[in-house]
Amino acid sequence: xxxxxxxxxxxxxxxGRWTRDGSEANMTGTTDADQALPTPRPDPSVWKGPDLAHxxxxxxxxxxxxxxxxxxxxxxxxxRDRTLLRLTAADFPLPTLAGELARVADDLAxxxxxxxxRGIPVERLGETAASTxxxxxxxxxxxxxxxxxxxxxxxxxxxxxxxRGGPAARGHGTREALPxxxxxxxxxxxxxxxTPRSGGHVSLVSSAAVLEAxxxxxxxxxxxxxxxxxxxxxxxQAPEEAPCTTAPLVSRHDGSADALTLRYDRYCLESxxxxxxxxxxxxxxxxxxxxxxQVSASPEHRLDLDLRAGxxxxxxxxxxxxxxxxxxxHESPERRSHALCLWLAFPQGxxxxxxxxxxxxxxxIRPRDTASPSxxxxxxxxx
Length: 383
Prior knowledge:
Number of helices: 10
Radius of gyration: 21 Å
Structural class: alpha+beta
Strand content: 15-25%
Order of helices and strands: EHHHEHHEHEEEEEEHHEEEEHHEEEEE
Oligomer: single chain
Distance between the termini: 27 Å
């Protein structure tokens, strides 16, 4: 039995069957000329939100068989009695579901760049077991990396009552709106345990589609996409490290022609200006940022998600930017919005190249105390 219900072809496989005008390609009766000059295929990483809004291809739902396999893996993880940080994919065995996750990973790396796996029973599991399931599932996709210098690996997205007033403030601790940006790792994984009373909607946008629009609308600004910019490290750097890191907005991983990657976080770009040694942003730079923000947030490009508790969101940050609207939370603490978050390095590069586990074209945050990373279960048992 399949672990996903109503499972469709991956975006990468489906893209090969469709022509640019959206009609289904003729799969029989091809001539030698057809084979010599194949129909150009659209890049699956270039998409617009309205075209995907009603598709089920990117949001498979776990079937009863898939849920039973997760329950079995959870029991095995408990039996092995490992701390969460030491829990590997082998400690969370998924005989059938692992193959499906591999296909999801392929679509993340070479297809649309995102997926939502629906139906994780977080309410039944409870926070501790849900954390183990979350960790176990994504360990089949990548290698978790720290999210801050305190060594936090498993993050908690919830309102702490603080805004983004200081340079070291992080967006996951506020109820404020977060504009489109990329995260600090190859892959962002998010699992809502509880949703807010109102708002807090996540939106995605194709980085490649945004870049195409920027080049079409303002070709005079396009060259600046490849210039180096300074990104504020938000006081996460080691004593011997510079307070900012320098990188272009657009790069190609390892020089590959098919692995374009976007890095964009306007908050960090502008916050870096607090350091006198950082080159000043020019008016044209801010025009470029304004245009990226405008295109990303436009209804023509963005895809608005209705994430529910138990929906596992996976985002390749090289191909997709994400945003979140402001939200109002519940009054009672036990009902307040709460999501689990992991940053991961792909076991392969964003274009599919075999690499070591590492964060590609992002800041590597080195924990100040690697002996006792925070944000994980302190119990010996993972759940």
